[in-house]
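User: Can you help me understand a structure? I only have the sequence.
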Amino acid sequence: MKTLSSPLNRTLSRRAFLRQTTAAGAVLAVPIIAPASVFGADGTVAPSNRVALGFIGTGRQAVYANIPGFLHEPDAQGVAVCDVDSWRMENARKQVDAYYASQRSSGTFKGCATFRDWRELLARQDIDAVMISTPDHWHVPMAMAAAKAGKDIACEKPLTRSIAEGRQLADLVAREKRVFRTDSEFRSRVLPFNRAAQWVRNEKIGRLQTITVSTPKDTALPAQPAMPVPAELDYEMWLGPAPEAPYTEKRVHPRHDTKGRPGWMCIRDYADGMIANWGAHLFDIAMLANDTERTGPVEIQGRGQYPPPGSLWNVILDFEVEYRFANGVRLLAKADKPAIRFEGTEGWIQINYPDEVTVQPESLMRWKPGPNDVVLSAKSNEKRDFLDAVAARGTTQVDAEVGHRTMTLAHLGLLAIDLGRQLKWDPVKEQIIGDSEANQRLEPKPRRAPWTS
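Assistant: Let's start by predicting it. Here is the structure, written out as C-alpha cells:
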C-alpha cells in the first residue's frame, strides 16, 4: 500500500512528520535509531504507510470507542486531537501517546499534537483523515470543511440536523471524491443485525411487509441557572453555529468527566433526540433490509410528546411514526426499548438489543447463503470498513448518501409530528409534495457567523 496523500501538496513525509515538531508545538519524540517494527518489519505496517488521523472531539464517544477503535488498527496512526475543552483534549492526548508508548520497547512516546481550533487541524497537510466525534450541530460544518481540505472523513451519527444539509454534504463528498463513513457500528455486528438484514433480503421470511423500530426514551430537565464558563472550555467555539445561550453544565457536558451522558444530546439546538440518536442505528438496518438505503419513504405520519415549554432538555420524549415505502413496506418507529422487528408473509425476526434474537421459522437460524443469494458486506468493525475504503479509494458500508437517507427518516418523522399531518415525500426530488410550509422546514437550521447558512 502506498502512502495515502490528500490532494493538498504535502510539505512533510510521514516519517519526517514523526521526527519533527508539530504545528501545535508538541515535539514528536521518535528516535532516529528505532526498532525494526517501527519501520514495518515483522508484518507490521510502517508509519509512512499508515492513514494519519486527527480526532476532532474528545468526549465520551471518542475516548471509549472512536480513539481506541482506530488506534488498534495497524494501518491507522493517531497524530492529533482537537477539542474546545482543554481538559478533555489533554486526556485524549495522553490516551494516544500511552497507547503508542505501550507498543515500543522504550515505553515512551510523545507524538500526538493538540488543537483547540478544528480549522487548524484541517490545515495540517500531513493528516489524511479525520474522525468527527463532536455534538451533532457541528457534524456537517466540520465534515464539509474537511472534504474541501482534502481529508477523508469518519463522522459520528446522527449525521445531520436537516434534510437539506444532508443533501449538501452527500453531494460535496461525491464531488470532492472523499471517502466517507457514517460512524454507526450496527452493520458490523454480523450477529444479529447484518445477518437479519440478509435473511430479509433473501426473503427467508417471505415478502417483507412491516418493520418495527423502537428506541430508548429521552428525559426532560427544567430550565437551569446560568453558571460561569469553566476556564478549560472555549464555550463560544462549542456553541459555534448554534444560537447564543447562557452556559450551564447540563447544556454542555459533565465537567472533568467523560463517562456521563452529555446534556446537549437532549437539547433541540444541538440534537434531535432518540429518534435521531438511536434511530441512526436502527433505521440504517431497516433501510438495508428493505433495500431502500439510497431512497426513502413516500408517506409519513406521526404523533409525539415534547417536554413542557421552557425546559432545558426539550427533545421529543414519546413518539409513534409510520412510514410507507413505494414497495408497500410499512416502517413503524416508536420510543420504547431498543429493538427491531421484521414481519413477512412467511415468518418474522425479532431482535432485542443488544443480541437477543428470536425467529419464525426456527430453521432460519441454520440457513446459510448459497451462490445465488444476496450476501451483504461484513466487516469486523466500522473503523476497519473506513480504513479499507481509504486504501482502495472505495465506498464504505454507510457513506454520506446512506447516512443522509437514514437521517431523512428521523427528520421527516419529527416534521410530521410537529405539523400534525401526513406528508407525501418524493425521495427522488427530496421534496414534500403539495406542502410549501413543510418544504420550508426542510432547510438547514440557521447558523451564526462565521458558520452562517
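Now, to help you interpret it: Confidence is low (pLDDT under 50) at residues 1-41. The domain at 14-186 is CATH 3.40.50.720 (Rossmann fold). Let me know which part you'd like to focus on.
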